[in-house]
Amino acid sequence: MRTSRRRSLALGAALAVAALGIGVWVTQPFQTDTPPSTAATFSGQPLQQRVSGLLDEADLSTQSSSPQPRTLVRPAVDVPTCVRAGIGGDTEALAAQRGRFHEKDAYLVVLPDPAKDSRVTAYVVDASCITQASSGKETKGDVLLRRSYARSSN
To answer: From 15, 24, 140, 150, which residue has the greatest number of CB atoms within 10 Å?
Structure first.
């Protein structure tokens, strides 16, 4: 009687471990390693702060120190062709910067929101397409993140 009870307990424990293992295996594809969108960082700085900083820098570069009337002429922002192709549009970028996103080389590109002048859209695009393009392959960058933000009112 004791032997059959031990076997039953051992078999029950083995089945419980197997069920737990199967449960982990089944739910694993639904788990992600990416942090929540509120924790998105670009080169160690929160993405929204980096976007605001880039826009501020771009606005400063368009201001003139001469007493003549100011004409807002935005200098063209250099965005690699494959990164631009990944975003899928011909809209002129307001700002762009190369950096790191989730341990990958990436480009942060800020575009005006076509629907609202008070907003911008920030794209983080995988920059590995740049090295692929230099080796002769035509590629487009993978969009890693797309977020809309209010323009700062400076």
So the answer is: 140
